[in-house]
Amino acid sequence: MTEREQPPRGYGSSPGVDWYGPTTVEPSKNVTDLVAAAIQRQDDLRAMEARHLRELADLRATYDQRLREAESARIDAIRAVDVGAVNRAAEVSAAQAQTLANQVSVSAETLRTQVAAAASAASTALSAALEPIQKDIADLRRAQYEAQGQKTQVVEARDVTTASRLNVNTVMAVLSVLIAAAIVYAAFHK
User: Fold this and answer.
1) In whole angstroms, what separates CA 93 from the centre of its chain?
2) Does residue 13 sit within a domain?
3) Is residue 14 part of a domain?
4) 124 HSE (CA, 13 A, CB side)
5) Which tens digits make up the pLDDT trace of 159-190?
6) What is the pLDDT of residues 122-143, one digit of tens each?
């Protein structure tokens, strides 16, 4: 190895030298330009990365806003359907209530008519049942009056016989009234 090929003494502790020994000088204009271009390139890359991250954040924010709006529209649609269902249920309920009210009214009127017809029939049946009883009572009264008229003509001795006839007539009248009451009771409690 020649002298020129060997590294200089004190390599690393002396001022900068190149491989062959001469001291190094400031880099040339070309190197300085290349270093400046590399630094500028890195600055540009950092700025582009920041711009890209900002674009991603804006895109994400826009997408999130659209998702919120879509979700809000979906919930509003569900609520609208629920409100519609509640309104429909209220309409159906009102229609059912009206139908029920009409049925109750018709049923009450029918029942009133039936009760009136039953009362009329019972009144007619009672009149028909009481007519013979009233006739019998009238006959008994007439017989009683005749008996009283005969009594005044009969002698005092026959007073005892007349009283017994009067008692028989009274018993007959009471019996007739009891029979009439039983018939009336039976007619109303069928």
Assistant:
1) 8
2) no
3) no
4) 6
5) 555 556 667 778 888 888 888 888 888 888 76
6) 888 888 887 888 888 888 888 8
Residue 12 lies in a domain: no
CA 66 to CA 59: how far, in whole Å?
11
> How far, in Å, are 1, 20, 31, 163, 190 from residue 23 at the CA level?
21, 9, 17, 181, 144
Which token pair is 43?
């600055």
Backbone angles phi, psi at 17, to 5 degrees: -135, 160
Q: What local confidence, expressed as pLDDT, does residue 62 receive?
A: 95
pLDDT in tens, 52-94: 999 999 999 999 999 999 999 999 999 999 999 999 999 999 9
Q: At what angle do helices 29-153 and 159-188 cross, to 10 degrees?
A: 160
Q: Which two tokens stand for residue 94?
A: 């009102």
Q: Which of 24, 21, 23 is closest to 2 using CA atoms? A: 21
Distance, CA of 104 to CA of 44 (rounded, Å): 88
Query: Is the Cα dihedral 150, 152, 155, 157 positive or negative?
Result: positive
102 phi and psi, to 5 degrees? -65, -40
Provide the domain limits for residue 120: 29-188
- List all residues 6 or more positions away from 35 whose beta carbon is below 8 Å from its beta carbon: 27
How many structural domains is the chain composed of? 1
Intra-chain end-to-end CA distance of the chain, in Å: 150
- Residue 20 covered by a domain: no
